Amino acid sequence: MAKRLLLVALLVVAVGVTALSQGEQMVCTYAQMANDFFLTFDKGAREAVEALGNTYIAATDERSPDKFLAQMSSYASAGVKMIFGYSPTIESVIEASRLVNRERVWYANILEIADWWTPLDAGEYYGQFIGPDAYVDGYLGGIEMGKLLNGEGKTCVLLGFPGSKAGNDRARGYKAAILDNYPGIEIIAEEYGDFIRDKGYSITQDWIVQFGNEIDGIFGANTSMSVGSAVACEEANLDHHVYQVTTDANKSNMGDLQDGSLDVVFTIYGFWMSGRQAVTVYDLAHGWRPTVPETMMSTMQAPITPANVDWFVETFCGDEPYAFDWTQMSRVLHPDDWDPQGLLTPIYPERFTNWIYLDKPRGYEVPVEYAEAMESGAYDRIRELYIDHFTAAWVVPPPESYPYNYVFTANNLGDTLKADIVRRTEGDVLVLETIDVPYNFELGASGEEN
Fold it and tell me: Which residues of the chain does CATH 3.40.50.2300 include?
């Protein structure tokens, strides 16, 4: 392994030296350019870095922790002081956070965070984690399925792959919503589809052989599987439409919403998250320091349906630059009038849905600063601060798409889990509402009841 790391590191340094000859450099890490999510992730990151007047470097790792860490080490050795992005595994986050603190490189990451490992565990240079809450995503997906079925019917669940936090938590949330709200809906089957279109297709084919016209809806832990599932249902010529509710809206599957193959797709705004974290590491490198609640934050999601898909395509799926004012996100460049241009809510680690069903490692305690910030009211103040500064109504689905004119984040700051929902109303007014999202502790990793 050490030899492999060294070889990758040497290659990266050779490539990186040329790039590092152009002013202040910022490195974005992510898996690959082979799908729409990472294409738009790269686009948002690049636009933000260039808006800040800096040089953008994309470091793709093909989901290899060795390559991910070797590249970070090499760029740090070459003088880079700002790294942000997506990591290939949750375990590699720990090694990355240790590396950046050792090398004094500012770091902010997206989507993946290790179990029971906070930025305060790592040190000052791991400044912030942000990501959408998968459990709340699945819960609201269950609510939408219930509405589509008018509270009656039979559904199946396409899980991701064993061990996937996002896939498993989306399934938990979905099942909790059905169990809590729709006694007339039965979940008759679930299976791991590994986030792959072909597996979603083949699994659905098997379900159709087994259940046929009994299937009324299928919930997918990501859109690739759901697209395959929709094709299988169409080919089977069932006597009714099988509703497809899923997540991870990408440019390539907007047509599936427009033609009715998919019914609800939740978007996680990956392009905004990557650009926002570019701004975060810029601010860290230029003197801004997050408060304790700001070290972990839940990010906005939105339901995309036939009612607002045309808006989403026109706003976020074109070739022209995004309309974000990236520099106005900066706390350094705009200390008074900064606007995150998206909804964020601080995450309290002790009630984080990624971790709440997992035992803490033996001897581990969450840094006391988090409890002190909660007791002092800092969490509530930061939540309100970010809501007050979020004024970019254009990122929220328009009022004519009601009831789908909203974005949401998870809110675990009280004794119960909630969703903070911001709706866009006439005149581009943003209105906040909060709803309960009961957490069902009895649901296992695959969403099955224990």
Answer: 1-126+278-287, 134-267
